[in-house]
Amino acid sequence: xALSYVGGKIAAxxxxxxxxxxxxxxxLIGGSDTAPLAGDIVIVGFVAAGLADxxxxxxxxxxxxxxxxxxxxxxxxxxxxxWKIMGGTPDTEVEVSGTGSTDGGGxxxxxxxxxxxxxxxxxxxxxSATGQNVGQPxxxxxxxxxxxxxxxxxGAASGASSNTNPFTSSDLSNFKTLAYGxxxxxxxxxxxxxxxxxxxAIDPAAFGGGSLATNDAWASVSLVLRPDASSVPNITVNxxxxxxxxxxxxxxxxxxxxxxxxxxxxxxxxxxxxxxGAPGVTPANAVHAHLATSPGLSARSSVxxxxxxxxxxxxxxxxxxxRVAANDATHAHGATAPPLSARSAITVAGAAHGHAATVVIVxxxxxxxxxxxxxxxxxxxxxxxxxxxxxxxxxxWS
Length: 398
Known about the structure:
The chain has strands at residues 4-13, 21-24, 41-50, 64-71, 76-85, 93-96, 106-114, 127-132, 150-159, 167-168, 173-179, 186-195, 208-209, 217-225, 249-251, 257-259, 271-273, 281-283, 295-297, 303-305, 318-319, 324-325, 369-370, 378-381, 386-388. The strands form nine sheets. A five-stranded antiparallel sheet has the order 1-7-3-5-4, with no helix packed on it. It has a five-stranded antiparallel sheet with strand order 8-14-9-12-11, with no helix packed on it. Among the domains are: 4-231, no CATH class; 367-398, no CATH class. It is built from no helices and 25 strands. By secondary structure, it is mainly β. The protein is 0% helix and 33% strand.
């Protein structure tokens, strides 16, 4: 989570040796909110003008005083800078001590930031500076180490009676300043911030305005706020175009994985992927070489015999739609070698064969054979055209 400015304010503190003063935290201006929330850091700069080094600061519990700095001249500037991370019930006000003198008044500047690291709010050790003979602070440079860090710079000075000339800054953001004329030695305070560029030191320009009197002094404290690393946003996948292989998924908006669109070479068994991520798999359209037993792939995955031309032997059938029929062919036949008819009936082939005594001639279409008593072949009668045969007495043919 990046550091963000919640708001700030200034307040005058009347001169008093020990009387404490309450400063509200519910009327912040210039930022995202009017009051701090739990986890916000409140930074308080408090200056008192006078003639001596005095002890001053925040008296509300839980604050850490980062530094109390003393600018020494005829008129002195005492500067205290403290901070606190707000708890579950944020403070609605902050209490500061007296100014330590009845002759010098005080001034407060406050900034509130959100998104600071809860364990280590200060990125690096503070730096500080003081000066004499002029009431214009020149804050010390400071070098952050953490990306997203913000520098916060507090400067203060003393001034002559009724000095109401506040500071100016040429390079600090969220700058707030107050010159308080009460009563003899008047305090001037200013606070501003700048985001770190990511390299080098932050070195703000000297403040303008304030006091140019050679009797006045100034003091400054420089801080760097560290952003809360535990609040870094989640990482999401960028939208982008990626090269895909067949097994390469693309990333969907909600991290679902879908198959990337791609063109792939297919074999006979290679499926195609249906549109819209449907789970069904259908055979790929492809052209394949077929053998006699090689089927083609039909629309519903049934297998049909491919049309093809094959050489046939006498016993080689062709495959028809519903049955097997014998090829038309010419074959050499022995006496017992019949052809196959359409209905598989077997008839004896018409042919001339040598016969033994018990062999008969099979006539064609209406011929009869009867054995004559003479034992030799002779026509049974010219009218009928019938021939008969009888075995000879000697057991041989005549």
